[in-house]
Amino acid sequence: MKRFSIALLALLFIAATEKWWDAYDRGVNAVNAKNYKVAQEALAKSIGEMPMEGTNVRAGRSLITYLPHFWLGIAKFNLGDTEGALREWRISEEQGVIARTEYYARMKDWVARAKQEQQRDARSNASVPRKAADAAISRALEMQLGALSAGGDRSESYLSATRKLQEARTQFQKAGTDVNAFKTAEQTAQQAASLFSAAAEEGKKQKAARAAAPPPVVAKKQPVVAQPQPAPVRVVEAPPPAPVITEAEAVKAITQQEEKRVEPAPPVTTAIAAGQKSVDLRPAYRAFAKGDLTRSEQLLNSILSTQATAEAFLLRGCARYTRAMLSRTPDPLLLAATDDFRAALQRDRSLRLDKSAFSPKLVTFFEQVRSKR
User: Fold this and answer.
1) Whose CB has fewer CB within 10 Å in the chain, the N or C terminal residue?
2) Which residues does 370 contact at the CB level (< 8 Å), separation at least 6?
């Protein structure tokens, strides 16, 4: 027992009297031996007494290159403390000594490895909220199609939902690996979906009200019969009686006027319809709204190969026009978009593009094609 106590006291005495350069030397040797816990403790002790790095630093009777932050960064990185490692290397570079040594290139390699590790960790942590946000945005796009089909695209709820959906997509695109940003995008998309659902209900109620309302009663105009004017008293000879318009002649005149009236223009749609019952355009529209134009066009090609609907031609024209605007050689794609718009209008002249769902330039281009028919 006495021997153990004496040995322990001797170790404590040696530790208490260890100089900073001895602790530094012990820490560097521990890093090279991959004993990173010992290295971290020894280098931290050395920094506590001598925090500034340097070259030709006097250590007892010797001159050494003193880079404790560099070596401590290596130890912390291998212990899983990536943030701590980058902090030590940043301190080392800010002090400016290591840039004049052979260790500078090695430190740059270590920093690159640490940053790659950080990115991998960030992507891994963000993968789940990213998927949740993407699913919420897809759900909002489906609800938008439902609102359009129900005729709710003129309501205030629809306009608010469109703004929310655009906000969610912007947040998603800028999130990178930010978990909180993806969660915010998910919440915004959920709000958009709720507003689209409310817009769809409003559209259904309006359609039901219009169907239940009785047709307006148009009052018929009564024929006006001209009264004969009395003959002037001062004339010796009485003038011939004024012509009398009979009731039959008056009715005939009114009927001719009614026939000459211009019939009101048929109502027009304000957006792309969801398609016929046998054709589901939602996946193609969802791909278009996400910016995956190639996928959208592939889906529409498949639909048009089996059933050439006006709505499918119209949506494919929108996809081709957008691709043209992103291309360095837009002319062939603009011609293809024009052909699609013409094919759509041949099948349904009343088609329109919703200005809140499509870009103003696209809407203008479509209207130009429509006006030239």
Assistant:
1) N
2) 341, 345
DSSP state of 62: E
Q: Whose CA is closest to 319, among 343, 342, 345, 299?
A: 299
- Candidates 358, 344, 354; CA nearest to 199 is 354
Tokens of 174: 């800028």
Write out the DSSP string of 175-217. Answer: -TT-HHHHHHHHHHHHHHHHHHHHHHHHHHHHHHHHHHSPPPP
pTM of the full predicted structure? 0.44
Which amino acid does the sequence have at 365? F
Query: How does pLDDT run across 259-288, given as a tens digit for each residue?
Result: 443 333 333 333 444 444 557 889 988 898
Cα distances (Å, whole numbers) of residue 111 to 90, 118, 125, 307, 362: 9, 10, 21, 58, 47
> Max alpha carbon distance in the chain (Å)?
165
d(CA 49, CA 113): 30
> Is 260 inside any structural domain?
no
Q: Which residues form the domain of 327?
A: 282-371
Average pLDDT on 283-295 reads: 89
Cα–Cα distance for residue pair 167/35, rounded to 1 Å? 51
Per-residue confidence band for 373, with pLDDT thresholds at 50, 70 and 90:
low
Please tell me whether residues 83 and 134 are part of one structural domain.
no
CA distance 216 to 214: 6
Q: How many CB atoms lie within 10 A of CB 181?
A: 19
